[in-house]
Amino acid sequence: MPRASCADFPGCPPFRAICGDALGFIKVIEAQAEKPVPQVVARWGEPSPGDSITCMSFTGNSSCGLAVARKTGVVDVLDPGNGVVHSRLHTTMMSTNSSCEASLSDKVADNPVVGGLHLFKETSSWSKAVLTCTQTGQVALQSVKLEKELYQLDSEVWEDEKDYLRAKWTVCKSGEVLCSKVDSHERYALFGGRGVELNLWDIENQSKLWDAKSPRRDNLGIYLQTWVTAAVFMSKDDHRKVVVGSGHHQLRLYDVGAQRRPVLTFDFGESPIRALAEDLDGNTVYVGNGSGNLASFDMRIGKMLGGFKGKCAGSIRSISRHPELPLLASCGLDRYLRIHNTVSRQLLALVFLKQQLGSVTFDNNDYSQLSLSMKKGSDQAGDEDGFIEDLEMQEVQDRSKPKRKRLTGKRQSRHDPFLKTSKKN
Amino acid sequence: MGKRKRLEEEDGHKPLAGDILPSQIKNKQKRSEASAKVKLEKKKAKKQRIESRNKAEKQAFELGEIPLPRKIPRTIENTREVDETIAQPDDDELHADDGADEFSAHFRREHTPKLLITACQKCFSRTRKFIRELLNIIPNAHYYKRGSYTLKQIVKYAKNREFTSLIVVHENQREPNDLLIVSLPEGPTAHFRLSNLVLSKEIKNHGRATRHLPELILNNFTTRLGHRIGRLLASIFPQDPNFHGRRAVTFHNQRDFIFFRHHRYIFESKELKEQSSKPLSKTDAVAPKKKLTAAKQAVIARLQECGPRFTLKLTSLQNGTFNSKYGEYEWIHKPDMDTSRRRFFL
Lengths: 425, 346
Description:
CATH architecture of the domain at 103-267 and 304-337 in chain B: 3-Layer(aba) Sandwich
Number of helices of chain B: 9
CATH superfamily of the domain at 103-267 and 304-337 in chain B: Brix domain
Radius of gyration of chain A: 22 Å
Helix content of chain A: 10-25%
Shape of chain B: globular
Oligomer: heterodimer
Number of helices of chain A: 8
Helix content of chain B: 25-40%
Largest interface: A-B, 31 and 31 residues
Order of helices and strands of chain B: HHHHEHEHEEEEHEEHHEEE
Strand content of chain A: 35-45%
Largest sheet of chain A: 4 strands, antiparallel
């Protein structure tokens, strides 16, 4: 008899995720309480190779809470609920207006690929603004203009562009910026890339606060070129702990308060690290690399907690942690979106999305709740809470296992770089 | 359900509790006698089954009824695990992706393929013979000695000379065992394991290929990954075959193994023997003479293999050109993927 090896997936708690792909589509994937198998519920955009999505940034509940950077250097600000494009910013325009050196601006015009993107929350001091960083190192802070007439490229709009540009600075003179990140309080920004050491900037004053020192030569005297491929802030409260993934398959923990060289360095796998995501607990990071390995690490001791299994055939380009539930979404060049449980590391669901995927984010707004409550009343909400409670229970149980306990023993305090640094401070 | 159990149910014959199976007999001579007997019986029963089926079909045909549908044997291919990645012809996203990927320029006939073939640094005669045959098969292919260059240097060189693909043959113990196909200038790079190589001289009654552009046949590249591999293989050959040359190159995918064959074909009108037309005249007794004349002019297709033969198995597909250390994989075979015999990726 045919052996059925494809076991049924256990299904997911209700969630909503947004995926951007290489053909310029934005796809919304939803799992509902009564249907635990996630499905594509919406597809926005027209197929065009130039519109390939390079970066994505999502903020909470807002009518324009999703920003998407395309290969052509255009940044679209969308409504994550219905996909209506509210505003369209041009990084190329920014360069034509620039008063800095002509050579640099020419470069930007040639290659305006956006390496990093951040959409500010409405509550922040930069309300409704977008921070973009091109690969050549031009950073711009632009206000989001809400226009009724979209896609208009008249000369007047070009003139107006100046008013929307709030701040502009250059991060590096050479090299290629590959990643940028803004901390949870939206005061500091990180930049790093190929030939660009990690550096931390104050967004308010546009001043460099700190930059990393390149690592020492190894025992053979070989110097590896700097190649930062991914960076995240470890915890929400602290902007000083930064985890960096490098192209030379190294994970590094930097402590901005302590020193310019990494506090902790270790290897993961044998291919370049492509994606990083931080956990809510402030210690764990999730790492994905170019040959499709996904794992979680405890950054206090630099120990691998475990690998995530499940049909990861291609390079992982993006990882996202759900803001409430213990869910982890990852996607990449193998065209699958995978949902894992962060605690048991079990594969919960797998969605084939047809294109090479570049970025994924969880959307924790309650559109489904609204529609459900409109349909069926509040019964469904109770169910959902039950599911979440179950998952939390599981989390608690798993934590009580001896495997996890080992991390909270005496050894932890000995190896904990955080404790050391806090003493210094 | 096991085969034996199924057959027993069909025949209505069940082994009794006291029956001794041939495998339980300890004397070898007696055991072989008994098993030969069982085998003969089985053979007879099968023949009988087929005869009775044919009879029933014939009867149904004569009565103008629709005969019972024949049973389809269960094979590994048709009991394949369900795969959601199978490319559907009506999928708009697939067409959009085809129009935008690295091979789209080739399929739009914007350039003719130009190929660079090279081998590992120190290759032996069998690899050289294999490359010589590849040069005969693939039009516009050029062999370059590998020398002491690294693959990245060769890729750079080939890009500058406007080559569209690069093929590298690697060998192990004087036998070619690896094939690397790099699509230039942007990638992707496919890495195949090469096995079961039979050079054309070793094929009985092989023909010699002409210099005409071949026809290309790609079979069973069904999934999204298979579609991409199929396009990669198609991009090696020119898009406009000389049908006049009657030369066909086949890449046949079966259970993730890609079989390469190279043939010449010919259409011949051949006089058919009278014996073959006899059963026709029996069933259709109205105009036997006419039938005979028609049968004489039947056109048959004849096939001659030119060689070589070999089998490819995909081990990885890399995004971009060759970069084993810092590259990103679109698909890489991992041991934990082999969960079932019925799971295929191409």
